[in-house]
């Protein structure tokens, strides 16, 4: 039994609790606590990833109760990958927020840590109800973070975000009731076994349970027609929070992949809702690309790019082949880090433009115009999917593994719309700008955090092969639910 | 010799000029720093070039992403060598030229950096031996040219031109990518070598037409072929060295390079002939005719470039080997004379301050030397004998005569070719005559013009000398290079051909004569032609493009706003409609197929059920009456608690009841600040839509509930009943599940509670509700005081309540109760003090900040969980022992109790943190209101 | 009994859905509350109904304890969420000056 498996949940959990104890609002102490925790998560996640990369699936039985009776955490390649990705995103996002944004409201650092706890828990848990609990943890923390700071726009967007997700939580509970009421279990692996034995009315109910889960996860992932809350929420959140939120949609994608991979790859409910997800994913891709083109703020544009990546990913996932899923995971890593970086960049730009903020209208040149312009150029290339950065590799991998003309048309056409939108935005912000913006200096740590995230694009291109090999291997393991089920129900590790 | 390094050099070199600029290097040193790497690359090219001339193909590959089929594979054959020479050679000349062209206050370092990036990308395109790598460099040329065209970013025309070029070529690049991926699918590899050898396979494939169209889209957009030609003239907003580079030898030539590169793969079919020839012909004529009417010097050259690219494309389309060789030859010739012409135009612009040919006249007098150079280059462009343009044009004319694909219509080709020649001569004549003769200059911004600096003319001289040398002595100068390039293009043996000035009296010569004479004639008619042209509506592709993009963006914004209309009701309706759809499609009464026996319904239960239904409906109907709604909701909650009691769930009943109390308190507090009544504002349509959703979802969930309740199932629960006592040390199985079997859920759950409290605290901290004393419609808000009765009852109740919660907490492991319920009871008791006596009264007696309480609770739970690590067990493993306690009796003292204490503290802390702060708010309100 | 519980759930979910779709924060809060009641009951009955079989060891036949534990968790989480929503509604009122869920001024007409 390796306690390290639970560390990605406990480290931020305890950090969050300690932060709560710190009542005197000593900001440096709070920052230090948060940053140490975020920093510590990286070696832990790397260690776990290396452990999982060997091919073993490790099971951590909480309370020493065997599955399916107790709750288990499961470390396979997929969960390890997601935890690693989260830790890589979190640190720069927190560095950025720790410059000043964290002072704009109460309890920022505690919320941030508990948000990480929720995300990591959702990735690691092998129990459906526990997944619900961690969803709630990450949601309630995200409510707090999304509303961090002031302003009517933030509150408006926050109300939408909260109410929709409360409805989503209710739906999740209905699905869980159906899961338990038909299969008599909550453990994911056990559910996967039992659902294959259902027939008659129970099978029908289990089908609805699965579809309701798709709706709930689709809401988290921001699929059409459930993405409408996202642009306003993300665009209005403080930059570090928005950057961290880049992983939140991926929690939805992950949850669909996880449940689908275990329970619905074969058996009586094989391919459950896959066609619908495919269609919705393509629509998401197209509408988000249109959103990118029509965006009037840079933050909104990046938010739509997040939605676009979700469409891209979900289409790849619902294609159903392990190869496509492998390509999808590569693209997931790329889009999470790059979109996170772009949120930070949008904020850097906005800071240098005074009252105009990140609105896409010509105005004064932001501080450090050349450097920001270069970063924007690189980030745009990466996120649009132009060579030589990671987006290109990801798109090529997806195009190769999803040989559907419709997908090609949407993915490439969407890329073109994004190209038009982003080139307009860049031209407006950096070329049409007046003055040379040299008077003010960029804040170094903020810039460093942004560069750190955006450097994922060249890094994932240069070391594309090992990363792609890893994601393909991850998908191959994902496509063999038997391994996971055996590891969880076969007596534990 | 490593080809990869060769390609890498310009990219590395791109770092030097900005560095030099930062070191405040003088302009010449800056230019030298830029020239360093290309010069090195050119020198390094000599070695492999020798091998190429011996007929070998130099190849070099590094692994990159083999999973994708993307390798860093490079090849140097004749075609690649030719282009590499053009790219590097003309590139160096352009750097030299730019040294004098750029003014001192321009960011030359950045300029050279972009130029070198572009050079590297171009070098990559022509030497790629891997299809994906080729696409990669291809897109890089688009991106770097975007930066170059937009270099003068303060000019609107430059920005728009750059974006238009990027959009059009970017679109082509995406099409090319799709085409290349399909080729890879057919061939089974992205190796260019294999693809070139698989021409028959590709042409026989059912995907061939699609592949061809996609690849040609890439080529035509890049090479500005009709109907994608419109971006090129606007790319002239770039500094002239860029135009000289991009639009003579490189960027636009990438398209025709690809025609040559893919020739063995894709050419030879009727479809190829039709598409390529047609596009080429249309471009040739359109460009040539339009060039004549440009008053802008660079505009004329731009359209002339379009026209010549059409000519080259047309030649490739003819599907004959000789035509392909002629095309390659014309690529060389066009690169030399067009680069020199652009440079000459730049000099003129530089010296006169304008490019308008209606004002620049008679420059012969002022800059005769430049005039000579420009005139020779123009003559080459027109195809005058003894110059290089003549040779390839002659071959072109001859080849158009050979084609029989069009059957009886075959005469169209030579006719079109001749017509193109006529216009070509006409605009060349205009370039010479208008600029250097044709009277005196008109109102020049800079007057009088001078010859440019000595070294600014050197690149022009070199290029013009090449035009003449090739034109006079083709066999010595160019035939070797042409031979290797030609055979590499064809992928095999070269056809018989002779590069000579004199082929005897034949039809091509006649066509040349017609073109020359006709061209001069057309030029002499120019005034009348211009007058006709001016009557045509003016078309500015920049404005049209920009207009379209803006219209598209507006439409996108509008569509986005329609879908994402900012209305929560609409978003929620989408979400719920999706749920309703799932239920409607997949749920049928047939799902009720269980055989489980039903429980009897008694009168009390029926009454309670009816109460719940009525209360819920009242809440829905009368939700605008706040007090009524809260009361009916609490009735609902009460009945739900009773239901739990009746249905064997005492723990739930207790929890529900205590939560109910707190929730109602919360709602009351909320009501205090929210408007008491709201007007009816949903239309009939909205209401009926919502009713429909409610009925479908409510009915569906009810149906599913009934289906579940009436069918038997297998469950894991037996394990909990069996193991609660022996394994968990408690008899209240629900509590043992909560603190032991599924303690991790509870850990998460109290975290949620804690976070909610924190979030609420953060929300409330600097909230000012006073400004919203009444809302915009002026509805009055509820006001309330602390009722005396409550005060007198609540204070003595507190110790009692605390005692009860201790009892409930302690017995929780065995009987209904536990940390949750105890925590909630404690909170309710404390909250009652707030409500009854006011915040100030309580705060004098209680700690003000509940954050640490939450934290200690969570930590206690967490540390208890961690404790099991020291015994070698996983997180949250419990241990227990039997203890006899007075009053409570014999029971097991489990480590889970400690965990449960954490739960208790968290619940108390969180609830109070939430509600006490809300209470404070009302206090604040009272004070301000009273003041 | 089963039919009556099913009807109760249906009514709670139905009224909850209807109220959640209203334009003001207060009915939305009520809707979420009713929806939670309904959904909690739904999860509860997934263990099937039983009379007088509280899951206490040593007291004869016991009903399924697991859904009860789940619902207990769900109730507390639901309470936390509702509380947050209530305060958020207040915050909305404070920052936008209206209790409309979209934070718009009341002159918007029908919504």
UniProtKB/TrEMBL annotation, chain C:
Q: Signal sequence span per UniProt?
A: none
Is DNA repair given among the entry's keywords?
no
Q: Which InterPro entries match?
A: CPA3_antiporter_subunitC, NUOK/Mnh_C1-like
A Pfam family of the record is Oxidored_q2
User: Where does it primarily localize?
Assistant: membrane
Cellular localization per UniProt: Cell membrane
The protein's UniProt keywords, in alphabetical order, are: Cell membrane, Membrane, Transmembrane, Transmembrane helix
What name has this protein been given in UniProt? Monovalent cation/H+ antiporter subunit C
State the organism's lineage.
Bacteria, Pseudomonadati, Pseudomonadota, Gammaproteobacteria, Oceanospirillales
């Amino acid at each position: 039994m390796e306690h390290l498996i639970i560390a990605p949940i406990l480290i931020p959990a305890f950090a969050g609790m300690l932060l709560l104890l710190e009542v005197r609002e000593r900001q440096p102490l709070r920052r230090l606590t948060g940053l140490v925790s975020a920093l510590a998560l990286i070696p832990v996640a790397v260690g776990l990833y290396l452990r999982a990369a060997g091919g073993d699936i490790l099971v951590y039985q909480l309370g020493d109760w065997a599955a399916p009776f107790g709750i288990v955490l499961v470390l396979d390649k997929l969960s390890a990958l997601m935890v690693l990705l989260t830790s890589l995103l979190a640190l720069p996002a927190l560095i950025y927020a720790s410059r000043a944004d964290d002072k704009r409201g109460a309890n920022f650092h505690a919320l941030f840590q508990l948000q990480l706890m929720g995300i990591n828990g959702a990735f690691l848990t092998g129990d459906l109800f526990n997944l619900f609990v961690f969803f709630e943890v990450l949601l309630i923390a995200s409510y707090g973070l999304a509303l961090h700071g002031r302003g009517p726009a933030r509150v408006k967007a926050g109300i939408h975000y909260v109410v929709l997700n409360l409805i989503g939580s209710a739906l999740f509970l209905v699905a869980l009731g159906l899961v338990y009421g038909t299969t008599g279990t909550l453990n994911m692996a056990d559910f996967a076994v039992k659902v294959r034995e259902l027939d008659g009315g129970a099978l029908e109910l289990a089908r609805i349970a699965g579809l309701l889960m798709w709706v709930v996860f689709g809401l988290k992932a921001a699929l059409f027609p459930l993405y409408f809350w996202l642009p306003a929420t993300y665009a209005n959140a403080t930059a570090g929070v928005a950057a961290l939120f880049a992983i939140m949609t991926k929690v939805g994608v992950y949850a669909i992949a996880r449940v689908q991979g275990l329970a619905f790859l074969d058996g009586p409910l094989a391919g459950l809702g896959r066609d619908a997800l495919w269609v919705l994913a393509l629509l998401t891709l197209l509408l988000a690309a249109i959103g990118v083109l029509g965006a009037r703020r840079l933050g909104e544009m990046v938010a739509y790019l997040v939605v676009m990546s979700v469409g891209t990913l979900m289409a790849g996932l619902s294609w159903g082949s392990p190869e496509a899923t492998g390509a999808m995971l590569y693209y997931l890593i790329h889009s999470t880090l790059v979109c996170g970086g772009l949120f930070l960049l949008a904020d850097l730009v906005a800071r240098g433009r005074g009252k105009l903020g990140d609105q896409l209208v010509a105005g004064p040149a932001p501080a450090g115009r050349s450097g920001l312009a270069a970063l924007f150029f690189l980030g745009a290339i990466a996120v649009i999917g132009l060579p030589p950065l990671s987006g290109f590799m990801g798109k090529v991998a997806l195009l190769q593994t999803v040989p559907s003309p419709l997908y090609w048309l949407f993915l490439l056409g969407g890329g073109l719309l994004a190209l038009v939108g982003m080139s307009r935005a860049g031209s407006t912000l950096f070329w049409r700008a007046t003055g040379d913006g040299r008077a003010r200096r960029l804040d170094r740590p903020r810039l460093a955090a942004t560069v750190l995230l955006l450097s994922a694009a060249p890094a994932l291109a240069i070391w594309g092969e090992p990363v792609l090999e890893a994601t393909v291997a991850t998908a191959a393991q994902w496509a063999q639910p038997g391994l996971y089920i055996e590891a969880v129900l076969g007596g534990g590790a | 010799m490593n080809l990869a390094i060769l390609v890498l050099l310009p990219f590395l070199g791109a770092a030097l000029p900005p560095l030099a600029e930062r070191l405040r290097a003088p302009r010449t040193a800056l230019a030298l720093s830029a020239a360093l790497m290309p010069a090195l690359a050119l020198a390094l090219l000599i070695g492999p070039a020798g091998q190429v001339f011996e007929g070998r193909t130099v190849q070099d590959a590094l692994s990159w992403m083999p999973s994708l089929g993307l390798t860093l594979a490079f090849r140097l054959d004749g075609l690649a060598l030719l282009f590499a020479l053009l790219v590097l050679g003309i590139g160096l000349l352009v750097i030299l030229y730019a040294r004098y062209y750029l003014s001192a206050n321009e960011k030359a370092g950045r300029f050279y950096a972009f130029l070198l990036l572009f050079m590297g990308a171009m070098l990559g395109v022509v030497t790629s031996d891997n299809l994906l790598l080729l696409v990669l460099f291809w897109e890089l040329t688009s991106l770097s040219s975007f930066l170059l065209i937009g270099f003068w970013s303060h000019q609107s025309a430059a920005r728009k031109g750059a974006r238009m070029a990027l959009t059009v070529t970017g679109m082509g690049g995406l099409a090319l990518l799709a085409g290349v991926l399909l080729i890879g699918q057919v061939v089974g590899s992205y190796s260019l070598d294999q693809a070139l050898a698989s021409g028959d396979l590709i042409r026989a494939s059912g995907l061939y037409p699609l592949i061809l169209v996609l690849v040609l889209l890439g080529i035509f957009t890049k090479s500005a072929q009709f109907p994608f030609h419109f971006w090129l003239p606007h790319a002239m907003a770039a500094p002239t060295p860029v135009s000289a580079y991009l639009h003579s030898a490189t960027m636009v030539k990438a398209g025709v390079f690809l025609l040559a590169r893919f020739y063995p793969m894709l050419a030879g079919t009727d479809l190829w002939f039709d598409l390529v020839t047609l596009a080429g012909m249309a471009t040739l004529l359109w460009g040539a005719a339009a060039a004549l009417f440009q008053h802008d010097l660079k505009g004329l050259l731009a359209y002339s470039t379009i026209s010549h690219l059409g000519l080259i494309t047309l030649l490739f389309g003819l599907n004959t080997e000789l035509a392909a060789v002629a095309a390659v030859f014309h690529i060389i010739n066009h690169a030399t004379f067009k680069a020199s012409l652009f440079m000459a135009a730049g000099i003129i612009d530089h010296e006169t301050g304008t490019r308008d040919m209606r004002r620049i006249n008679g420059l012969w007098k002022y800059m005769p030397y430049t005039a000579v150079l420009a005139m020779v280059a123009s003559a080459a462009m027109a195809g005058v004998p003894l110059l290089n343009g003549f040779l390839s044009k002659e071959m072109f004319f001859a080849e158009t005569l050979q084609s029989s694909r069009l059957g009886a219509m075959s005469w169209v080709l030579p006719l079109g070719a001749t017509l193109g020649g006529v216009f070509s001569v006409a605009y060349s004549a205009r370039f010479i005559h208008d600029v250097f003769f044709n009277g005196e200059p008109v109102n020049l911004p800079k007057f009088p013009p001078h010859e440019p600096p000595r070294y600014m003319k050197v690149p022009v001289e070199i290029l013009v000398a090449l035009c003449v040398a090739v034109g006079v002595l083709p066999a010595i100068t160019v035939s070797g290079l042409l031979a290797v390039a030609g055979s590499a293009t064809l992928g095999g043996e070269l056809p018989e051909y002779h590069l000579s000035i004199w082929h005897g009296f034949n039809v091509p010569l006649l066509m040349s004569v017609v073109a020359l004479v006709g061209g001069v004639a057309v030029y002499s008619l120019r005034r009348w032609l211009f007058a006709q042209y001016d009557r045509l509506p003016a078309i500015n592709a920049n404005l049209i493009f920009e207009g379209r993009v803006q219209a598209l963006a507006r439409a996108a914004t509008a569509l986005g706003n329609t879908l994402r209309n900012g209305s929560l009701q609409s978003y929620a309706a989408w979400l719920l409609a999706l749920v309703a759809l799932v239920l409607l499609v997949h749920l049928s009464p047939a799902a009720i197929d269980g055989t489980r026996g039903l429980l009897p319904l008694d009168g009390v239960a029926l009454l309670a059920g009816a109460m719940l239904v009525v209360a819920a409906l009242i809440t829905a109907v009368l939700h605008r009456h706040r007090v009524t709604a809260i009361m009916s909701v609490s009735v609902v909650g009460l009945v739900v608690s009773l239901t739990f009691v009746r249905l064997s769930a005492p723990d739930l009943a207790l929890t529900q009841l205590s939560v109910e109390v707190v929730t109602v308190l919360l709602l009351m507090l909320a009501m205090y600040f929210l408007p008491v009544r709201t007007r009816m504002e949903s239309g009939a349509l909205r209401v009926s839509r919502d009713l429909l959703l409610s009925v479908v979802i409510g009915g569906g969930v009810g149906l599913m509930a009934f289906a579940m309740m009436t069918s038997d199932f297998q469950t894991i629960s037996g394990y909990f009943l069996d193991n609660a006592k022996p394994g968990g040390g408690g008899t209240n199985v629900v509590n043992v599940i909560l603190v032991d079997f599924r303690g991790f859920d509870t850990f998460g759950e109290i975290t949620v509670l804690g976070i909610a409290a924190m979030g609420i605290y953060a929300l409330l901290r600097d909230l000012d509700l006073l400004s919203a004393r009444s809302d915009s419609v002026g509805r009055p808000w509820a006001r309330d005081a602390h009722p005396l009765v409550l005060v007198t009852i609540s204070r003595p109740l507190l110790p009692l309540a605390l005692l009860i919660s201790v009892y409930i907490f302690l017995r929780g492991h065995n009987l209904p109760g536990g940390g949750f319920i105890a925590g909630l009871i404690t909170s309710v008791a404390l909250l009652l003090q707030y409500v009854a006596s006011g915040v100030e009264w309580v705060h004098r007696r209680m700690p003000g900040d509940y954050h640490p309480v939450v934290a200690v609770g969570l930590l206690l739970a967490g540390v208890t969980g961690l404790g099991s690590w020291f015994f070698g067990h996983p997180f949250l493993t419990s241990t227990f022992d039997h203890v006899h306690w007075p009053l409570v009796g014999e029971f097991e003292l489990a480590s889970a109790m400690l965990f449960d204490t954490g739960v208790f503290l968290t619940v108390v802390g969180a609830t109070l943190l939430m509600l006490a702060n809300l209470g404070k708010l009302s206090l604040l309100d009272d004070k301000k209101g009273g003041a | 009994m089963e039919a009556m519980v099913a009807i109760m759930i249906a009514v709670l979910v139905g009224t909850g859905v209807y109220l959640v779709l209203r334009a003001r924060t207060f009915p939305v809060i009520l809707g979420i509350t009713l929806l939670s009641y309904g959904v909690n009951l739904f999860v509860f009955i997934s263990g099937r109904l039983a009379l007088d079989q509280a899951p206490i060891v040593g007291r004869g036949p016991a009903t399924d304890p697991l859904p009860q534990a789940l619902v207990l968790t769900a109730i507390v989480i639901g309470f936390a969420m509702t509380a947050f929503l209530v305060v958020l509604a207040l915050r909305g009122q404070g920052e936008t000056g209206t209790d409309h869920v979209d934070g718009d001024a009341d002159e918007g007409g029908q919504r």
